[in-house]
Every structure is written in C-alpha cells, then in structure tokens.
Write a structure and sequence with these properties.
There is one protein chain. By secondary structure, the chain is of the alpha/beta class. It has helices at residues 60-73, 105-113, 122-135, 155-158, 164-170, 179-193, 245-253, 257-266, 269-274, 280-288, 292-315, 326-331, 333-341, 380-393; strands at 3-9, 14-20, 25-33, 40-46, 49-55, 83-90, 101-102, 141-145, 199-205, 209-215, 218-222, 321-325, 362-363, 372-375. It folds into 2 domains: 3-145, Nucleotidyltransferase, domain 5 (2-Layer Sandwich), CATH 3.30.420; 195-380, Nucleotidyltransferase, domain 5 (2-Layer Sandwich), CATH 3.30.420.40. The protein is globular, with a radius of gyration of 21 Å. It binds adenosine monophosphate.
C-alpha cells in the first residue's frame, strides 16, 4: 500500500490527512490547534471516532512528534516506514515554482527567498517542512504551492496597471491562491462532464474566497492577486478596494501602514461591514432576524461573486460549468440561490430542490440551464497526496 501524509502547517495549527493512495482512501485525519499554548488541542480520527486531547504543546517540534507517534500508537500504521511520502502545502511559490517539487536544500532556500511575498505563511510552512524532515529523515517530502496552478495566466491577466519596473524589480503581479482547491474542483468537473477542454468557473467561498476561470487544465484568471487580499469580499478581508483609500485613512484616522494593513486583512469583509461576525452562518442568522448590516454585507459579497462570474463567462467565451466549493459554497443554500438567480439573464437556471443539499457533490441547475452548476466539495489534501505519488512513488 502506498501511504502518503498530506500536511498543512499554519501559524499555530497543523492539519493532516493520511491517505492510502492505492484507492485514495483517508486512513486518518486530524489537527493540532493552538500550538505554543498550555491548552493546545490535538484531534485525530480513529475508526470514524474523533479523539480529542487538550494538553500543553509548546512548539512545532512537539506537535509534529505527537502527530507522528499517534499514528502508530492508535495502530493506524504499524511502522512509520509505511509512509512513502509527505506532501506539504506551501502558500507562495512565486514565479519560481510552476508545479510541485521534491524538497531538497535548494528548494528550502528558494521557498525561504519568497518569504517577503508571503511573510505570514511561507515561514511557517517551511518550519513544518523542516520538522518533518528532521523527525522522519528517511521519508521524502514534496512541496505543493497554492500559487502554481495559476502560473498559466498570461501577462495581460497577471500584470497590474502600475510601473512595469515594479514587476521586474519587486515581483509585483497577480499570483492567485487556492490553487490546489481550484485544481481539484476543475479536475472533478471535467470528469463529470467527460470533457477535457471544459471551461469552468469555480467559486471557492470559504473564510477566504476566490473565483477562478479554468479552461482545460489551465487557470486563465482568478480574483486573488499579489496577496490573498484581492477580489471578493471575504470573512475578514476587504477584497478589491481603491488603493487611494489607504493613504487617505492613514491621515484621517492617524493610523500606521501596519494598522491599515491589519484592518484590511482582519477587520474588513463580512465582519467589517456587518460589525457582527466573519462567519457566514452568523450573517445569515442576522439577515433572518432583520439585521440590515448583515443584509448589506451579504449583498456586497453576492454582488462581487456575480460580477466575477459574468466577467469570466465572457472571458471564457461561454463557460460549460460553474462550481461552488469550500465552507460557504458547499453549505450555504442561500448564497448559491442568490448568486445563481442573479445570473438568469445568461440563461442560467437553478434547480431549487437540488440546491437544498449541503456538503455533497450535486448538480444544482435545471436541464435547460445554459451552464451546468454544481456543488463540488473541495479536497486540497488529495491533490497534495496525488502530487507526492506522481513525484515520488511513480518515479
Ligand atoms: P472554510 O474557510 O472553507 O472552512 O469556510 C468557512 C466558512 O464556511 C465560514 O464563513 C462558515 O460560516 C461557512 N459555513 C460553514 N457551514 C455553513 C453553513 N451551513 N451555512 C452557511 N455557511 C457555512
């Protein structure tokens, strides 16, 4: 059996899934949360049951060794050598990484060189990689980048209307994110449609959110940009704003650049507009209770999604499919309903009954809809594990 561990290291959390890649079955999954605290939480699924433990996990090394030891402790595997490879999610691959790579010293250096582009993410991703490499030195590691799927965008899609030297000297361009999710969903839709050159618009709507236009295996355009701050309104991120707002508010509110950046990343979006919550369930409860700011937050959220879908429909010269994924996309009947009903001018027709499902793969458009619409639960971890198989096991 070819067992592969898929890992996502965040600033204080470590998510993992162990696959048997002979049939892509998940053997176990779990998360270490609040790393660094006396009350960290470790959750692991053993035989369909979630086992939770609260304990002090002071650093990343302890988190990784806890995870590794629990795999044998719970007899999910008997020997760590059964793991044939480890795949790591890395947020930023810049223009250096156009696909996934086996990690060696050069790759570690190159990922570190990109830290300036993703200061909140790449350093922690690297730390996770280094811990696994030192605790399991005989198991090969693969880096899978959130950005690399979008490296197929052409210059007219990825360049901003700013001095060209900003791109040449500082790498200022659109990179796009959520690449593994957009890759998984587009692959799945192509399989369902049985059409290799399908044109697909994917709405990844979670706490972070982006829309992507995909033709065949290529990302043509996407809404996140130089950082994940651009595009749609998100849980706490502002999405597209006029850059001139930044110096204006700095002066008016006497704030520093760092404070404004934090406001745009952490206090904006659904949270900023509603004044209540970044969680779309709270927003929907607020709307049901007549809260006007919640309604407004949702209206802005929906309007941007609709606007990007229609723009990408034209860009793709007519999409074959629209797919909804991630927390909101998979679960919110209401958001899908509001988005798709606003697209009726394009001949898109939602099947209201089919749209009532949550979290499962489903066609949600009527048979006479001009574009097929789907819910496709995303699976970023399996894309990571597939790349490990491609680069390590099959070679
Ligand atoms: P993610 O970042 O993909 O984990 O998605 C998180 C978002 O999904 C949060 O805004 C949640 O409120 C939202 N979400 C999860 N379940 C539901 C649901 N049943 N209805 C509406 N939104 C949901």
């Amino acid at each position: 059996m070819s067992k592969v561990l898929s890992v996502n290291a965040g600033s204080s959390s470590l998510k993992f899934k162990l696959f048997d890649m002979s049939n892509e079955v998940i053997l176990t999954e779990g998360i270490v949360e609040r790393i660094g605290s006396d009350e960290a939480m470790f959750t692991i699924k053993v035989k369909q049951e979630k086992i939770k433990k609260i304990m002090a996990i002071k650093n990343y090394e302890l988190a990784v060794s806890l995870l590794i030891n629990s795999l044998t402790h719970h007899e999910i595997i008997y020997d760590l050598d059964e793991i044939k490879g480890i795949g790591h999610r890395v947020v930023h691959g810049g223009e250096t990484f156009k696909g996934s790579v086996i990690i060696n010293d050069d790759v570690i250096k190159q990922i570190g060189d990109l830290n300036d582009l993703a200061p909140l993410h790449n350093p922690v991703n690297l730390m996770g990689i280094k811990q696994f490499m030192s605790l399991l030195p005989n198991i090969p590691n693969v880096a899978v980048f959130d950005t690399s799927f979008h490296q197929t965008m052409t210059e007219d899609a990825y360049l901003y209307g700013v001095p060209y030297e900003w791109y040449e000297l500082y790498g200022v361009r659109k990179y796009g994110f959520h690449g593994t999710s957009h890759k998984y969903v587009s692959t799945r839709v192509r399989q369902i449609l049985n059409k290799d050159d399908a044109k697909i618009i994917i709405c990844h709507l979670g706490n972070g959110a982006s829309v992507c236009a995909v033709h065949g295996e290529k990302s043509i355009d996407t809404t996140m940009g130089f950082t994940p701050l651009a595009g749609l309104l998100m849980g706490t991120r502002c999405g597209d704003v006029d850059a001139a707002i930044i110096p204006y508010v700095m002066t008016k509110a006497n704030k520093t650049l760092n404070e404004i950046e934090a406001d745009l990343n952490k206090k904006s979006g659904l949270l900023g507009v509603s004044g209540l919550s970044n969680d779309s369930r709270d927003i929907e409860d607020g709307i049901n209770g007549g809260n006007k700011r919640c309604r407004l937050a949702q209206d802005i959220f929906i309007r941007r999604i609709v606007s990007y879908i229609s723009s990408y429909h034209v860009l793709l010269d007519g999409a074959d499919a629209i797919a909804f994924t991630a927390g909101i996309g998979e679960n919110s009947t209401r958001v899908r309903e509001e988005v798709l009903s606003k697209l009726s001018v394009l001949g898109i027709k939602i099947d209201h009954e089919a749209n009532k499902v949550r979290g499962s793969e489903q066609l949600i458009s009527t048979s006479d809809s001009s574009v097929k619409c789907f819910i496709i639960p995303t699976n970023e971890e399996v894309i990571i594990a597939r790349d490990v198989v491609k680069l390590i096991i099959k070679n």
